[in-house]
From TrEMBL:
Its EC number is 3.5.2.6. Residues 1-24 form the signal peptide. This is beta-lactamase. The lineage of its organism: Bacteria, Pseudomonadati, Pseudomonadota, Alphaproteobacteria, Sphingomonadales. Keywords: Hydrolase, Signal.
Amino acid sequence: MTSLGLRIAALGLALAPASCSAGAQPTPNALVATAPAALSARIAALGASFAGRVGIAVESVDQGWRAGWKADEFYPQQSVSKFMVALTTMNQVDQGRRSLAEPVTLTLADLTVFHQPIRERILGNGGSYTTTVEALLTQAMQKSDNTCNDKLMRLAGGPDAVRDFIAGRRLGAIRFYNGERALQSRIAGLNWNPSYSIGDAFFKARDALPLNRRQALFNRYIDDPYDGAAPSALVNTLARLKRGELLSPASTAKLLTIMSNTSTGKNRLGGGLKPGWTLAHKTGTGQELGGVQAGYNDIGVLTAPNGRSYAVAVMIKKTSTPLIMRMNLMNDVVRAVIAQHEATYSGGLTL
């Protein structure tokens, strides 16, 4: 065995080509490895101690190992699904079917529900506002703007185009629903009406429904979410993106740069970072009923000062714990990954 092989064996890594999802290009000289036992144990402890239904997954971008807690179940994505729209859009850019500089006009008919900062620009400009595909993508990912996301989805060809991308790239256990306004309406027991996008009309219509009906639909969504995804599938998608297996090098760099400047959820995964580490991520936050929230998430790619990267997903399906405890969980998962990384590379070993 070579000197490098001996050092790898000392870390418990297998000298074999990394497995990857069908259809993906294998990573040159990649390694298949068993997840470090200490990290697996720490993640299991964090998952078991959390007061709520949570899934956690971590994948080494460079070595291919994966650790997790209940990581193969379906969890509500909520705005994490905007990542799927972004991937679909950037893939169309790579195909020459779309340009980031392409002008796009939004009108009152494009408005959605909940968080949509671009709404003020549309209303303040007489009900019509022209921007670009890149600006829509940036707003959807960095500010989680629902209107920007749904407009991008329709430009890409609608929900079927996103589902086709997921299936075509064999991303695994990831569902995609029909956009934000359709999803949020169905969870609440409503059929979408354009009037819901103005003021508090959506909340009034939702609150007018019988509570027992709302509760039944809310529980049904939690048990089998229309936009569900397995944390294990999401971290593998993130890892494949980081390795350049899903998009061109330029589009990969563009999307990860956009995600590195996300302004939502700074104290979720990002709260556990150490100096020198970076995070490219997307958050997701669901509706609440009776003090219970369905969907509180953050997924992203952590990159160490030495360039090694890890895909991480923490997805809370159902909980009533205070926000600070949810953020602490996410912080602790990141700290566990960093601690494992530092233990692995403290001797200066570079694989």
